[in-house]
Amino acid sequence: MFVKGVAKRASFLVSVATIPLLFGYHAIGILMFTVIAFMMQFFRDPERIPPSDENLIIAPADGRRLSGKIDRIERVGSDYPLIDRIFPDGGGGILISTFMSPFDVHVNRAPVSGRVIYTEHVDGRFRVARSRVLTENEKNLIVIRTDYGNVGVVQIAGFVARRIVQYVKEGEYVERGDRIGMIRFCSRVDLVLPENCEVLVRTGSRPMAGETVVARFNPGKKTDECAVK
Asked: Most buried residue, 44, 144, 163, 196, by most Cβ within 10 Å?
């Protein structure tokens, strides 16, 4: 399965790429087919099956190929630029940040079920997404309200990724695992959780968006007060 519209465009490009081969320009034809193959693998959008337990929080982004992985897990407070949009009543949260390589699936998924209560696109620069670039790089915030507090998903553009796509709107209800957006080419996704959850992954983990469990809500503690296990 591919991102909507990609298969049709790829079919057209394959037809175009055969023309150089027919006229003996094999190097050009092979190069064009290589580019098409890369495009097809980048825009793939496989189905994912989230776990059934509603207390579980799943990864919003893939980090499985080459250097892709979860590379930051830490507490965040007022030092995190978008924290006041995620938790308008104050307080901090837990950050789980995933770097996506160019070979990862770049469709992002809802980590929880809930209502989209706030979205914001922030223009910025396009620095390498490996560094701490949240304050400078272009980004897009999606805040989802749950019974256990708000959850923020921050899509961050990188040096190569220069387009962030958001699929959902404010007021829309999303189910865990639903497609909520996409970042083109290597980039980063920050997941900001309320502190009534338990982190179940470690730095270096390689998550699969829509399936890998990264944290769990504490059903007996419906607050925005937080602690990392």
From this structure: 144
Q: What is the mean pLDDT of residues 98-121?
A: 93
Q: What is the DSSP string of 76-98?
A: E-TTSTTHHHH-TT---EEEEEE
**Burial tier of 218 (Cβ tally within 10 Å: 0-12, 13-18, 19+):** middle
Percent of the chain with pLDDT over 70: 77
Active-site residue (options: 97, 101, 187, 205): 187
For domain 56-217, the CATH class is: mainly beta
Strands 69-76 and 93-100: antiparallel
Ordered by start, the domain boundaries in the chain are 6-42, 56-217
Q: pLDDT by residue (tens digit) across 10-37?
A: 576 667 778 877 888 888 878 877 776 7
Mean pLDDT, rounded, of the chain: 83
Q: Is 81 helix (H, G, I), strand (E, B) or coil?
A: coil
**How many angstroms separate the most distant Cα atoms in the chain?**
70
Specify the DSSP element, H or E, that contains 25: none
Q: Is the pTM of this model over 0.85?
A: no
Q: Are strands 114-122 and 164-166 parallel, antiparallel or unpaired?
A: unpaired
Is-contact 142 150, C-beta < 8 A?
Answer: no
Q: Specify whether the CB–CB gap between 179 and 80 falls below 8 A.
A: no
- The reply to whether 15 belongs to the active site is no
Token pair recorded at residue 125: 């620069």
The DSSP bridge partners found for residue 182 are: 107, 165
